[in-house]
Design brief:
Layout: H1 2-9, H2 12-17, E1 37-43, E2 47-53, H3 65-71, E3 75-83, E4 86-92, H4 106-123, E5 127-133, E6 137-144, H5 148-158, H6 168-176, E7 184-189, H7 198-207, E8 211-218, H8 220-224, E9 231-234, E10 241-244, H9 246-270, E11 274-279, H10 284-301
Parallel strand pairs: 4-5, 4-7, 7-8, 8-11
Antiparallel strand pairs: 1-3, 2-3, 5-6, 9-10
Helix pairs in contact: 1-5, 4-5, 6-7
Length: about 300
């Protein structure tokens, strides 16, 4: 049973494609385990960072005697701590994510994105968590760096039935109170619906010094609107139905989509968040490799 659930969300070929990719936070992180990433906290650990003047209570073994002989003052050596990071995957499970069939369904594509990246994070001994939301937070699996975490994530995902509308801003604000500081937050959603309030929610996360990545998952139909003949459109989050000629709507729809995504991209830019559009018709492994390569380029430029 567990193996069948894992195989639904974790594809060996995709894992093989990203196996040699190491996921790194862009800034300093705060964790509670020894790890491979720089911490903003100073202490006595691995890499030398500088000196500070000795104060009573400091361990005398950290006194730099060479400095004492030249300045006749006691200074202690300080080092940068290395720590693990915590990565939160926040997945939209509202009804609009039901669109699409098989592997190209937005919900399944987003879930596989979360579990694949989560596996990559846990494999390097960092922590991953999963939160799901629609009109409210539906579930929150607390962070862990054990491989059992991936099974817990997939079991939770397998129980989700998308039926409700989306209230992304309220859910992100609620989530802010549940997580720590200086962590990484992946928000995986189609971001359809009102963007009002999203900027305020992102600002609250940024105030806590979190790194934020917005992964916008869209079906290829939604990106190109290549429907022909008379088509009945049925609302996934509302009960409306419309019988239309898509040719009459295509130009206006694509214009509205472009303006919506430009607004989303602007919100991300102003708040120093990454915005990554994903097309569910594309191989997930290729999409993740492109994202990680792009992320590494950004980090080298910083």
């Amino acid at each position: 049973m567990a193996d069948s659930i894992l195989s639904r969300y974790l594809d060996p070929e995709t894992l093989g494609q990203i196996a040699d990719r190491h996921f790194e936070p862009q800034g300093l992180v705060i964790g509670n385990l020894a790890g491979a990433h720089k911490s903003p906290l100073a202490g006595f650990a691995v890499e030398f960072a500088g000196h500070r003047e000795y104060v009573p209570g400091d361990d005398p073994k950290h006194i730099d005697w060479r400095v004492y002989y030249t300045r006749e003052k006691y200074f202690v050596k300080q080092y940068e701590l290395e720590t693990n990071f915590v990565c939160h995957f926040v997945l939209d499970v509202s009804a609009s994510m039901r669109y699409g069939n098989g592997p190209q369904q937005k919900m399944l594509y987003g879930a596989r994105t979360a579990t694949t990246l989560g596996y990559s994070v846990v494999r390097q001994s960092d922590k991953a968590s999963l939160a799901t939301f629609d009109e409210k937070l539906r579930g929150f699996i607390t962070p862990s760096n054990s491989m059992g975490q991936i099974l817990r994530m997939t079991q939770h995902l397998d129980q989700i039935e998308p039926v409700s509308k989306t209230r992304i801003a309220d859910c992100l604000i609620e989530l802010t109170g549940r997580i720590g500081r200086r962590e990484i937050v992946f928000v995986i959603s189609d971001f359809f619906g009102s963007l009002d309030g999203l900027e305020d929610a992102l600002q609250r996360l940024r105030y806590q010094r979190h790194e934020i990545v917005l992964l916008q998952v869209l079906h290829h139909d939604e990106l190109v609107f290549q429907f022909n003949g008379a088509v009945k459109f049925m609302g996934l989050e509302v009960s409306d139905e419309f019988l239309v000629q898509p040719e009459d709507l295509r130009v206006a729809y694509l214009k509205a989509l472009r303006e919506h995504n430009e607004r989303l991209a602007g919100i991300a830019l102003r708040n120093r968040c990454e915005w990554i559009p994903l097309d569910t018709s594309r191989n997930l492994g290729e999409s993740l490799i492109d994202y990680m390569n792009q992320r590494n380029r950004w980090m080298r430029m910083r």
